[in-house]
Automatic annotation (TrEMBL):
It catalyses: L-cysteine + L-glutamate + ATP = gamma-L-glutamyl-L-cysteine + ADP + phosphate + H(+). GO terms for molecular function: glutamate-cysteine ligase activity. The keyword GTP-binding does not apply. Coiled coil: none annotated. It comes from Streptomyces cinereospinus. Belongs to the glutamate--cysteine ligase type 2 family. YbdK subfamily. Keywords: ATP-binding, Ligase, Nucleotide-binding. It is an enzyme of class 6 (ligase). NCBIfam families: gshA_cyan_rel, PRK13517.1-1. This is Putative glutamate--cysteine ligase 2. ATP-dependent carboxylate-amine ligase which exhibits weak glutamate--cysteine ligase activity. The keyword Nucleotide-binding applies.
Amino acid sequence: MSDAWEVPTVGVEEELFLVDPGSRRLVAAGPRVVARAGPALGDQVAGEFAQSQVEVRTSPCTTAEELRQELLRLRAGVADAARAEGLRVCASGTPVVGDGEPTPVGDHPRYRAGVRQYRAMMADFSICAFHAHVHLPDRETAVLVGNHLRPWLPLVVAMSANSPFHRGQDTGYASWRSVIRGRFPCLGPPPYAASLGEHERLAAAIADTEAMLDAGMPFWDLRPNPRLPTLEIRSMDVLADVDDTVALTVLLRALVMTARETVLRGDPGPRTSSEVLRAAYWRAARDGWSGAGVDALEGRVLPAPVQAARLADLVRPMLERFGDTARVTAFLHRLTTRGSGDRLQRAVAREAGLTGVVDDVVARTRGERPPQDPVG
């Protein structure tokens, strides 16, 4: 690996809900909060599809600690702006409480076009994700690296699951956000592509059917970012704990760079069946970290921790090279002992109900961890 790639930068985008501290319901105050946070955060804060959301975007970061400090600063800035509007910021993949009333859509041509194209499918599309970016300016290589990452995406869904509740109902799923996204023909894992040209032709063909808004900006869970020199991974629920977000991001960096070395040796990646991959996504969304999932590489059902151990072994040389081994090891330990976000939310719900879940996620979003994480 050349010196220029010794420490590739990473970045994160996070979508966050705005909630009323009394009712704990979503509030369509995104434009006001963005305007209030703007003087301090500039273009690192923006609106999102629903007016009950805001988005924060880190600068490119070299180290995990640099990324952590960026996220803490951005979250604090948005939380302060929300508090000035009498609101709180909540990092959950779906709205925990509330009724079925759709929240107003943000004032952006792409959002309005989505409503025209997908109609009632957009009625409950108030969901929050985090996207990880890994610096990878060669778009041809990025597509081939994506082929290697495709089979691991269901595990990433399980590791980041943080949306068991949806508007007052326990869905029975670990990541209901993934289920909402999965009904769209243009969301989810990308198709296998043997080249950048094939990737672009597939996007254009899907856009011609009107199943995708814009071939130049596909919303697949892996893509060479249309505007940035990065490979973007988009399959994750937003996570309440910044340390989890950072650890998963640097784990993905290690996977991207491991795959890049494989691509440079001439391997374009496994042709994992899209049907098996979709099934693996669904199983991961339903059962999350606490269940078994489909190993999309082999088609076998394996516990998520077993798959994660395999992933850690695969990328260990890169984790060690970038100084991230301890951080990722601690993250996997937290998942095993504390559980992922869905398990935490359900544990709180048993003790304090859904309003308590919102309060707990709000505290975690701000970095105010409870002294004892609930388990069970």
